[in-house]
Q: What sequence folds into this?
């Protein structure tokens, strides 16, 4: 293991890059929740104080490790204060505004670059699991297992919307006015967030 180098950095770019590279691998392999800043520092061969020197916390390091073009906290600001039945529309509207704004090219490059990389794909999964869906589901009632299932189902709808409308640009969805596209897709997303998840035909397949 690389010996720890204490003190303020004299090769800042190199040490910061090593920290980000270690974080990227660890987040992809172990998930956001399982990784600590001290673990990242140990893997990168630096003093833990250096991680805090470059990054305010794990969220900022995570964003840097996956090269997020936008901060989920900013995109989803105020989401938790909305009534549960309004969150599907609000989430899709926020995503549509983001993808149709100045960052659209960076976002498309991020998604395309993630599809061919195991580490980046895992990172995208962690973005949704650890930073997007908890904010959308905050305050919703239900067992943990049910909320995790809802988060997964909602993520499939959100990612499908992003991929088909903005990355693949499948017509006619790609050319629909924003509010029309949101109005058509949001009810399904809202069902995943708050609707019944029981099998409509329990006897099927028996």
A:
């Amino acid at each position: 293991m690389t010996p720890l180098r204490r003190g303020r950095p004299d090769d800042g770019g190199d040490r910061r890059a090593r920290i980000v590279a270690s974080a990227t691998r660890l987040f992809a392999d172990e998930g956001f929740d399982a990784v600590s800043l001290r673990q990242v520092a140990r893997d990168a061969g630096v003093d833990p104080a250096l991680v805090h020197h470059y990054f305010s916390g794990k969220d900022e390091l995570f964003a840097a490790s996956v090269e997020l073009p936008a901060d989920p906290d900013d995109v989803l600001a105020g989401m938790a204060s909305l009534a549960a039945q309004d969150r599907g529309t609000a989430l899709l509207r926020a995503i549509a505004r983001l993808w149709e704004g100045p960052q659209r090219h960076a976002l498309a490059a991020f998604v395309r670059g993630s599809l061919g990389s195991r580490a980046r794909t895992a990172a995208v999964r962690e973005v949704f699991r650890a930073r997007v869906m908890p904010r959308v589901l905050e305050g919703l009632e239900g067992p943990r297992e049910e909320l995790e299932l809802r988060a997964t189902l909602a993520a499939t709808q959100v990612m499908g919307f992003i991929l088909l409308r903005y990355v693949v640009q499948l017509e006619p969805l790609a050319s629909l006015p924003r509010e029309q596209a949101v109005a058509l897709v949001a009810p399904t997303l809202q069902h995943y967030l708050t609707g019944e998840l029981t099998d409509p035909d329990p006897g099927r397949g028996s």
